[in-house]
Amino acid sequence: MTRHLEATIESFPIAGIFTISRGSKTQADVITCTITENGVAGRGECVPYRRYGESLEGVLADMEAAADAVRNGLSRQDLQRQMKPGAARNAIDCALWDLEAKQSGQRVAQTIGATADTPLVTAFTLSLGEPNAMAAEARKHAGRPLLKVKLGTDNDEPRLRAVREAAPASRIILDANEGWTGENIERHMALALELGISLIEQPLPAGRDAALATIRRLVPVCADESVHATADLENLRDRYDAVNIKLDKTGGLTEALIMKAEAQRLGFAIMVGCMVGTSLAMAPAVLLAQGTDYADLDGPLLLANDRPEGLTYEGSLVYPPDPLLWG
């Protein structure tokens, strides 16, 4: 029997509003890919991202265009050559990993040398808002060991001071989402050093980040929008200290594993991050994140409702997926 690919759009309400420097959202719109062969089904999930020129309709069309190749036995290796990196390839790649695991009886964790039962500490994200509102959220989550704070305005000082005062013991990652400029980055970086910030993520716009090679990086800087796939890494060594690997950027776990190994070889610190999606999207990323410096895999914690067979979270600990979910 040949394989069958089905792709469907699903929406999951966010608990409240999720805001970054580029805008706000109240629901996570995802595409679920299911590949079935001989009654066995593998699943993957992706989150199309408008910032990268993606839309739900466009990604869905890309996945449906690949259906014939999947039906004829497309391998994960062939997939890398036939589809560009991005959300569509990610969902298909992860569905193929899941299908292979279910057919072989060998967990993905075992295949890639990860552990199937060891939890990770994940960052918990605080949305961009007014200083008082951000302080209130930080205070609510001050017991978490790692917070990720969304910033990216011309003057983030009152927000950052309010958050640090409300969560004095937490390690903090700042994510400016390309919102800072050459005029304010050194001021914000000095403030980050003063307040004991651990990492600054994508402070300047991708393609306009050359200043990072010439200023003193008082706090380590992590590339997100500036890095998508393995080929990007070499040219970022002069301006970034870390890279954020996301499956929706790399186009799946297959490429992400290669990128992780190369980033480690080049001396980058590594964060494994996510879009706002369900546990199905996080599951392969939890395995990828083992042995890295930062995991930012709190997508399901931001939702009002996750998938019923979702990942297990205990505070800021996230456990690898159960086979009923993925892998």
Automatic annotation (TrEMBL):
<keyword id="KW-0479">Metal-binding</keyword>
<comment type="similarity">
    <text>Belongs to the mandelate racemase/muconate lactonizing enzyme family.</text>
</comment>
<dbReference type="InterPro" id="IPR036849">
    <property type="entry name" value="Enolase-like_C_sf"/>
</dbReference>
<protein>
    <recommendedName>
        <fullName>Dipeptide epimerase</fullName>
        <ecNumber>5.1.1.-</ecNumber>
    </recommendedName>
</protein>
<feature type="binding site">
    <location>
        <position position="224"/>
    </location>
    <ligand>
        <name>Mg(2+)</name>
    </ligand>
</feature>
<feature type="transmembrane region" description="Helical">
    <location>
        <begin position="266"/>
        <end position="289"/>
    </location>
</feature>
<dbReference type="InterPro" id="IPR034593">
    <property type="entry name" value="DgoD-like"/>
</dbReference>
<dbReference type="InterPro" id="IPR013341">
    <property type="entry name" value="Mandelate_racemase_N_dom"/>
</dbReference>
<dbReference type="Pfam" id="PF13378">
    <property type="entry name" value="MR_MLE_C"/>
</dbReference>
<dbReference type="GO" id="GO:0016855">
    <property type="term" value="F:racemase and epimerase activity, acting on amino acids and derivatives"/>
</dbReference>
<keyword id="KW-1133">Transmembrane helix</keyword>
<feature type="binding site">
    <location>
        <position position="201"/>
    </location>
    <ligand>
        <name>Mg(2+)</name>
    </ligand>
</feature>
<keyword id="KW-0812">Transmembrane</keyword>
<keyword id="KW-0413">Isomerase</keyword>
<dbReference type="InterPro" id="IPR034603">
    <property type="entry name" value="Dipeptide_epimerase"/>
</dbReference>
<keyword id="KW-0472">Membrane</keyword>
<dbReference type="InterPro" id="IPR029065">
    <property type="entry name" value="Enolase_C-like"/>
</dbReference>
<feature type="domain" description="Mandelate racemase/muconate lactonizing enzyme C-terminal">
    <location>
        <begin position="131"/>
        <end position="222"/>
    </location>
</feature>
<dbReference type="InterPro" id="IPR013342">
    <property type="entry name" value="Mandelate_racemase_C"/>
</dbReference>
<feature type="binding site">
    <location>
        <position position="175"/>
    </location>
    <ligand>
        <name>Mg(2+)</name>
    </ligand>
</feature>
<keyword id="KW-0460">Magnesium</keyword>
<feature type="active site" description="Proton acceptor; specific for (R)-substrate epimerization">
    <location>
        <position position="150"/>
    </location>
</feature>
<dbReference type="InterPro" id="IPR029017">
    <property type="entry name" value="Enolase-like_N"/>
</dbReference>
<dbReference type="GO" id="GO:0046872">
    <property type="term" value="F:metal ion binding"/>
</dbReference>
<feature type="active site" description="Proton acceptor; specific for (S)-substrate epimerization">
    <location>
        <position position="246"/>
    </location>
</feature>
<dbReference type="Pfam" id="PF02746">
    <property type="entry name" value="MR_MLE_N"/>
</dbReference>
